[in-house]
Amino acid sequence: MTFREDLKTYVENINKMLEQALDIMTGYADYLVDAMRYSVVGGGKRLRPLLMQESNKLFGEPSKELPYFMAALEFIHSYSLVHDDMPCIDNDEYRRGRKTTHAVYGETTALLAGDGLLNYAFETASKAFDITDDPAKCGRAMKILAKQAGIMGMIGGQAADVKAEKTGETMTEDMLLYIHENKTAAMIESALMIGACLNGAGDKELEDLCEIGSKLGLAFQIRDDILDIEGDFEQFGKPIGSDEENGKLTYVSLYGMEKAKEDVDRLSKEALDGLKRFNKRNEFLEELVVYLIDRNK
Amino acid sequence: MTFREDLKTYVENINKMLEQALDIMTGYADYLVDAMRYSVVGGGKRLRPLLMQESNKLFGEPSKELPYFMAALEFIHSYSLVHDDMPCIDNDEYRRGRKTTHAVYGETTALLAGDGLLNYAFETASKAFDITDDPAKCGRAMKILAKQAGIMGMIGGQAADVKAEKTGETMTEDMLLYIHENKTAAMIESALMIGACLNGAGDKELEDLCEIGSKLGLAFQIRDDILDIEGDFEQFGKPIGSDEENGKLTYVSLYGMEKAKEDVDRLSKEALDGLKRFNKRNEFLEELVVYLIDRNK
After folding, report:
1. Distance (Å) from the C-alpha of residue B247 to the closest C-alpha of chain A?
2. pTM (2 decimals)?
3. Secondary structure percentages of chain A, helix, strand, coil, to 5
């Protein structure tokens, strides 16, 4: 199997798992489940669950608790996009080349679908306690998940980003790095750390993976900013130049294209080198890192 | 100590605990922490954490994990109010006699503050894994928390309620009970079940407490509907008659005032009888149930 074939299979399996997890009958709230499903199943690279799955492999055979946490992380990612796209934040009509949740279902349903997905993330992760032989390990994974997604992680980064945009305050280097570290990298770190945690990795290994995730996350975000300028709408799935049009300050506008590209190369190389230092190698994971940085969408 | 004195002390302790839990330094996201704190510390009966604390006492000495879950439940309750009040749902400017979060901080911040609180609820609960001797028990409590707050619980009820209001479809008895059972009662059930779970209660006891919580929750909601018609603005903290003005269908409008009052009495008596059947009695909890039903606000 080539990397591309493996990737395709893995993503298909993740998509199936996500659809199954969202196959819920509620009675009067079914329309909300539809909106939640629409928000999740419409594509996406499934980067975070993939990274979790592959990080888990660095420390042994696949853990049986893994699917619960992979789905949870993707639900959190999905909810953050649904709320981010809403009229009171970015007011985006398109995401990944298709209509955003509020554009299809209206603002009220999008608000509740985001809430529903965030809560369902923790509900799904908590089901791992039913099947685990090691509840302490699951508790540790739950704590990582919640912290990295929260006010000291993704939500904190989102809050800082939104404030900078809405108030038009001058973006400093420190502020931009805070936003990228928290809004983007925290969830990548979370993926790598939870995967490892579920296979019994120790504190030092989790720290190393957090640092690798931080570098990979920053490289990924800068690559996104570069694609917003140089990318192709068909490939990228959202209007090109939308950041610039919205007057949004990015890594590229702050440091220039040349340094941005250099930093992507340096950070992704450092992340790769970090991965290679573990006892067990995971070639797919290493190729995935390269793929994520070389992507055109 | 009288019931009222105990109640005052307990609520003060809960308020202190909530404020401590929200004493977080984030750097660029501090404005969001302010909005989260405003949404939580502005009063409220602290009914859910109180019920959890007292249900825990039915099964032994206070569990050390209790404060984490008490805070978590109140954060979930608070986030639900913040999002519920937003322009795209109820568009309420006042709650508990003070300005709602979006009225003070704007819609964008209110959206993120609600997200922040929901996530922080699970983050706070997950900290119990650091101090517990029984991670399986905490995992079980986490599962109850997530399920009762989610699409099969509170969010499901909220979704059904919002849909009925926005589409103006005819409210049936079945639909109204679904809404009350999920939107209101699910969190009361959660409080009683988690308190018991943290002191090692078995499945049968949790089932009984779920049923008691369901009755208490329904009685509490009907009492709320009655107060909306007969209450006093100063006491109740929101404009009287607002449900009627909004054309909102309630238990009272569906069944009439007389049956509503009869049902409150019957349901609260059944809840009380249920509580008295446990081996250990908790007089404060029994008085709390009476107090909640006799309240004027």
Report:
1. 18
2. 0.95
3. 75, 0, 25
